[in-house]
């Protein structure tokens, strides 16, 4: 039998193939079982060592990252020319491309710049740009951004910039047919200060952020309009704000610039939050008009689209009219909420509510159906609604009077609820000709009753409580009548 495994005897399974245990061992024998146990223990110990080494490495990396203050990163991004040599060496101590870009951005090669932005290699980028633009004079991302920015300045963004160029910029200059390219960046992997390096390089390469934001709006609109929508559903046409020159790109840039200016003014405290929300909301509405989003698909069309084709063709009649319908005339406020206010605790039963309840017209069809109703029928529903409103106020008045009466010291108090044992005790007193019976004697007699006899007192209890409540209600009615008679007339 092999000797027991000692922790110091655990082999390393990371070097050569000979270090790994032989899997062809007969574990049914005593020696084979021991070898198998040693192998499993060794493998688990090796895995544990690897995990510990990985954790130690990551902890060391985190400690190294924390050695560089955030203020140094911010200074490298915004005032790179003012970095001291000590600060540059501190950034270089990271030992990665981000540190090099922040310390000495001019020292980066073209390949390294493309690596930071997630672009393909320079020659591939050049080929993709020239294929999209159709111009061999444009070959770099900076020139591509300059081309788009110039089109925005001239009000020719919609006409001079093709859809292929928009797609190429948004895909980080990767070809459209390269559907499996990796969009992940070091930022996704948690690399500190990655965005600081990218921002610094974007400024030096004149990759205007505002230009990219305008491109992003058109890219989204392009995807919306290229989508195959169901029959009868279409994307709304763009709506230009007053004073625009008819180019969506230029108008979008102007709106985004105005929003940025508002944000700066709010940060400085020059405008109130309410004013900021109102003005920025108006600008955002203009953006929505320029770039309408996906159309709303009616539920019945969505359901129809989910059915098999043969079902749609043979059994589904496609609705061709527009939906939801627009009412032929606006619904009056009185028809929605009644001719006057309603009391608390009472549900509003307006004319249109009674119409919906009686006809089954609900949802987005209710308002158009009500608008198409003859005026005489509307008046019928209005009269019913007003009658119910008056009934509600009468009920509410009686409730208030009852509550006031119940709070009055002269009001009879409601009787306590009797229990089966109390009914039994009262019977015992009655049988004793009104003389009190010892309580514990009553308890002993109650305990001696059978289950059937006790259940009979449940019915007696209910009758006693009903009679007591009827008597109390009669006293309450008499008290209310007395209060009405004593109340001043008029």
From TrEMBL:
Organism expressing this protein natively: Staphylotrichum tortipilum
Compositional bias ranges of the Acidic residues kind: 1-33, 59-68
Region (Disordered): 1-81
UniProt-recorded name of the protein: Uncharacterized protein
InterPro entries registered for this protein in UniProt: HMG_box_dom_sf (IPR036910)
Biased composition (Polar residues): 41-58
Source species taxonomy: Eukaryota, Fungi, Dikarya, Ascomycota, Pezizomycotina
């Amino acid at each position: 039998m092999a000797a027991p495994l000692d922790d110091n005897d655990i082999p390393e399974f990371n070097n050569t193939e000979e270090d790994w245990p032989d899997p062809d061992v007969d574990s049914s024998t005593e020696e084979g079982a021991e070898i198998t146990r040693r192998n499993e223990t060794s493998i688990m110990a090796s895995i544990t060592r690897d995990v510990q080494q990985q954790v130690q490495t990551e902890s060391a990396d985190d400690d190294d990252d924390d050695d560089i203050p955030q203020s140094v990163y911010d200074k490298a991004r915004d005032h790179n020319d003012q970095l001291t040599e000590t600060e540059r060496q501190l950034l270089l101590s990271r030992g990665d491309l981000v540190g090099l870009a922040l310390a000495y951005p001019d020292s980066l090669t073209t390949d390294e710049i493309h690596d930071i932005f997630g672009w393909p290699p320079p020659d591939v980028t050049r080929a993709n740009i020239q294929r999209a633009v159709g111009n061999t004079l444009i070959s770099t991302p900076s020139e591509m951004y300059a081309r788009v920015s110039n089109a925005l300045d001239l009000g020719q963004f919609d006409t001079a910039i093709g859809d292929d160029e928009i797609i190429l910029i948004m895909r980080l200059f990767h070809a459209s047919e390269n559907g499996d390219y990796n969009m992940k960046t070091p930022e996704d992997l948690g690399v500190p200060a990655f965005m600081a390096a990218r921002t610094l390089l974007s400024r030096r390469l004149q990759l205007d952020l505002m230009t990219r934001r305008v491109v992003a709006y058109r890219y989204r609109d392009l995807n919306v309009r290229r989508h195959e929508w169901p029959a009868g559903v279409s994307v709304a046409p763009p709506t230009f704000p007053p004073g625009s020159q008819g180019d969506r790109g230029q108008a979008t840039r102007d709106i985004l610039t105005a929003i940025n200016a508002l944000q700066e003014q709010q940060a400085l405290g020059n405008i109130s939050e309410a004013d900021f929300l109102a003005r920025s909301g108006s600008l955002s509405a203009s953006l929505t008009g320029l770039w309408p989003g996906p159309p709303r698909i009616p539920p019945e069309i969505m359901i129809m689209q989910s059915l098999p084709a043969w079902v749609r063709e043979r059994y589904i009649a496609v609705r061709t009219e527009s939906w939801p319908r627009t009412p032929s005339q606006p619904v009056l406020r009185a028809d929605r909420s009644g001719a006057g206010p309603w009391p608390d605790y009472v549900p509003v039963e307006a004319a249109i509510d009674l119409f919906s309840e009686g006809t089954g017209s609900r949802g987005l069809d209710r308002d158009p159906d009500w608008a198409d109703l003859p005026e005489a029928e509307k008046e019928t529903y209005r009269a019913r609604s007003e009658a119910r409103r008056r009934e509600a106020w009468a009920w509410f008045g009686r409730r208030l009077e009852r509550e006031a009466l119940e709070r009055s010291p002269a009001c009879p108090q409601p009787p306590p609820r009797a229990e089966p044992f109390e009914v039994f005790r009262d019977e015992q007193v009655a049988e004793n000709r009104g003389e009190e019976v010892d309580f514990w004697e009553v308890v002993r007699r109650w305990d001696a009753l059978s289950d059937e006899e006790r259940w009979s007192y449940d019915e007696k209890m209910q009758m006693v409580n009903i009679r007591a409540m009827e008597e109390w209600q009669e006293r309450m009615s008499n008290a209310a009548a007395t209060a009405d008679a004593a109340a001043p007339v008029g």
